[in-house]
Amino acid sequence: MVSGVATGGALVIRGEAGIGKSTLLAEVVSGAPGRVLRASGVESEVEIAFSGLHQLLLPALDEIGGLPEPQADALRRALGTASGETTDRLVCAAVLGLLNRLAERTPVLVVVDDAHDVDRASMTALLFAARRLADRPIGMLFAVRDPAPRAVDSAGLAELRLSGLDGENAARLLDELGTPVDGPTRDRLVAATAGNPLALTTLGRSADRGRLALDALSGTVPVDSALRAAFTAQLQALPTETQAALLIAAADDTGRLDLVESLGGPLDPAEQAGLVEVSGGRLRFAHPLARAATYSSATSSQIGRAHRRIAAALAATDPPRARWHRCLATAGPDEALAAELETDAHDAEARGGLAATASVLLHAARLSPAEADQERRTAAAAHVAWKSGHAGLARTLLSRISGNTPTQVRTRGLVELYSSDQVMALHFLRRHARAAHLPDQAGELFFLAADAALHADRLGDARRLARQVADLPGFRDYGRWLADVLELRVVDAEPWEVFEAAPESVRRSGAHRWLLPMLLNRFGRDPWAAREFGLAAHEQLRTTGMLAISAIALPWLVELECRLGLWADAAEHAEEGLHLARDTGQQPREADFLSQLALLAAWRGDASGCRRHARLALERATPVHNNLAAAQATWALAVSELASGDVEQASDRLAALSAPGLPTAHEHIARLAAADAVEAHVRAGRVERIAEISIDPSNPSWLQAVLHRCRALAEDSEQHYRLSTSDVDDFPFERARGSLLHGQWLRRERRPAEARAELRVGIDLFESLGARQWAERARGELRACGGSAPRGDVAALTAQEREVAALAARGLSNREIAARLFISHRTVGYHLHKVFPKLGIAGRGQLRGFDLEP
């Protein structure tokens, strides 16, 4: 819109101070063709008639002589180059005539910044010309502050109103300034500044990430002097009593009109000036920076007095908030108040108010006379800040602590594990676990160290850590279950059983009580129950504000949903997790989600999406030694190549998963990808790469199917082909891959009828999952043995499957369907899992296209 005006037309750009009007004008000028005439309003010259025109037309004075004599004389007199009086009408005509004359040779762009500070006579002439440009190559741009001390009449002209940056662009701006921040801090800064670019730039240049997070948490950010001046000019024009009332409103920040009115003066003048809005018993500042300017322009004694008055008014009705205002009014140490604030913080945390908890704990630490209490409360604030996604703030607070309190060690371990190098995290956590005095503390640190070892492909270390966990009082079952996960064995416990068996320290941590059952039930005996638990855990963590923990939990949920064939849900959760990981500064978890998205893209036949996500996953995984994600991304690339027929490249990639010392090697991923590796090696004629394959009956059924597929390919064994498709009805992709390979083998054995039956099963499942390349490959095999793929038919459903599908088509959840039909929600999931391939669809959203009602 703006660039178009550069070659003809007029536009008035409006926006608050610092919103980017001048930057936008400069950008247009830099690329404008032809001649540019510029002027900027100056408040001290606003009463000098034609001062703006003089500034604008000074470079074109020698062109005035070409105008008709009355116009030339009028313009010279207006600009002070000739004596005598003139009329506004003649000056207006002269300005338009001069612009037209200039435009006969080259396009002309007129740019007027801060037009509200240009004298009225000049603006009258310029706006007169702007409304009469016709089709001439003349562009006119006016930038006007809104609200402005003087009105600019833009009637008849196009307007563009600039607003603040959104979260994504605010983050980009802070990144460019060298001050990247986590998502929660970014969101608070955007809210506190309404996305004002100048305010954000000032903050980004004047503070480190920890300081920014502290400012954002307080809700009152420092205001640039130019921005403060824009608001304080309005404030100072108000009655003294109204200014005092606004300070009460800025200090309280709850919007309670009754409180402000009881402690301050009349608000009508502020409302009439557009500084505040009053409605329904609530007061709000029209712009967040107005509140910040009100607060920051007051003296420290004025601010302290405001908080003391608010505290006194709230003492009887809201003691915690009264204590908060007492705290803000208190400069020196006060242990009694600090202890009360610490209690309030724990209450706020229990209610899910993590950001408020961290802020209260920080003030409690500030008021603590004893250094030990300061460090303990600061460590607690750091832990809460990390849980709520403020990784930068957590690091800043941890750097203030010299000792090794249990909370400090635990929080630093969490930051290292989930935001930094996995090998370094392993060493830190293991060292402090061994030094821990209490079994509960040691158990949690050992468990976290095992997670780091798992990601870093240090499975030997992880197994030793699992044994150490099992040796601790209260952790025996947890250690045994962890050992099962590390050996890829079925964990013989339901997720809620694991949840209830949590040792006391895990129960107290809250977050890890939800996380550990998800990790352990990756290989649980009931994957549908594990998924339901995962959904419940995700909802609990999300609604209680534990953003960092939610990003940690989601990879295990995505893994389960991938395995169960719920690919749309898996992709949605992976994208959500990726955004959370980025927002909370968790680079290793970013790599996890990107590698999962790469694998999903490979299974679906989206080669470009697979390559894009895999490249990003490897970029993020390799520097932090996240071998698990790097290996999974490599596996994804190999699956895509295998599906497209590039078997040699796939063979090389899959061999790298088992090569010790490579950043893409990982023992678990190599085992999960074993069937793909054997298929690639066989098809590439590199059978010497096939390692000996053993099948452990304690492995989950889907993994046994993968390993039977390996044996079938390596040994050309019908028994293993059949076993690769048995007991995997809950895992449609594994079932489909087994059916495809079995069908191919049957065709080669000249058993076409049996081959067609297997291939049709594979096609149905591939199509229901949206695995396009795999479905096409299976259809090619089916055509080769004289068959064609069937279409989905409601008649193929059993009575109960049809009943379940009909309710799902109406939008009911699994639990709602279960309640109606008096069956378990897991049974509902089982039936739907059968329905989708029979109808040839990928998910419940497609059920509406079928007539399912009885």
Automatic annotation (TrEMBL):
One Pfam family hit: GerE
The coiled-coil regions, if any, are: none
Q: Which UniProt keywords apply?
A: ATP-binding, Nucleotide-binding
Transport among the record's keywords? no
UniProt keyword Cytoplasm, yes or no: no
Q: Where is the HTH luxR-type domain?
A: 790-854
Gene Ontology molecular function: any one: DNA binding
Q: Which domain of life is it from?
A: Bacteria
One GO CC term, this protein: cytoplasm
Return the InterPro entries for the record. Answer: AAA_16, P-loop_NTPase, Sig_transdc_resp-reg_C-effctor, TPR-like_helical_dom_sf, Tscrpt_reg_LuxR_C, WH-like_DNA-bd_sf
Task: Supply one GO BP term.
Answer: regulation of DNA-templated transcription
Name of the protein: ATP-, maltotriose-and DNA-dependent transcriptional regulator MalT
Its source organism is: Saccharopolyspora shandongensis
**What is the taxonomic lineage of the source species?**
Bacteria, Bacillati, Actinomycetota, Actinomycetes, Pseudonocardiales
